[in-house]
Amino acid sequence: MAIALNKNNRAGFTMIELMLTIMILGGLMAMLLPAINSALKKAKKGTAKTTMMTIKNGIMQYQAELGKYPPKLKDLLVRPKTGDEKVTKKWDGPYGFGEGTEDVPEDPWGEKFVYKLNPAGSGSKHPYELYSYGPDGKGSPKEEHIDVWD
Question: pTM for the complete prediction?
Fold first, then answer.
């Protein structure tokens, strides 16, 4: 028994089938994109917190060994060349970071972490402030800052 083949019948998809598939995939992507974006933001905030905890541990090591808090974060990595001679002799860093680390890491948004010593008697609960401005950078309101103490 012979089957007649029509030369006009071709295997493949019609334009309507392709357009429908593209529309379905586009709709799925539109629904997934906000969830992916939210997860990415959450991951970056977690990374900022983890990095600040490493810095905080380094500050605690520095304070335990030298009896005072570092004036700037760079002092955790590099022996101060000037200033208190007791500090320059006792310094045994880097503190909080491995050997070969040359600079304090930035937050996940490419900005430097903010570190400020609080003067004695300032009424602050903590001896220093350490935070990131967060995803919106320097202009962001204080509520959006990611603080090491929270």
Answer: 0.73
Report the percentage of the chain scoring pLDDT > 90: 33
Q: Is residue 80, in this structure, part of any structural domain at all?
A: yes
CATH number at residue 122: 3.30.700.10
Query: Which regions of 7-148 does DSSP assign to beta strands (E)?
Result: 114-117, 128-132, 146-147
Q: Taking the CB of residue 107, how many other CB atoms lie within 10 A of it?
A: 22
Write out pLDDT tens, residues 111-143: 999 999 988 777 778 899 999 998 888 888 888
2 domain-assigned? no
Q: What is the C-alpha to C-alpha distance for residues 41 and 35, in angstroms, rounded to an integer?
A: 10
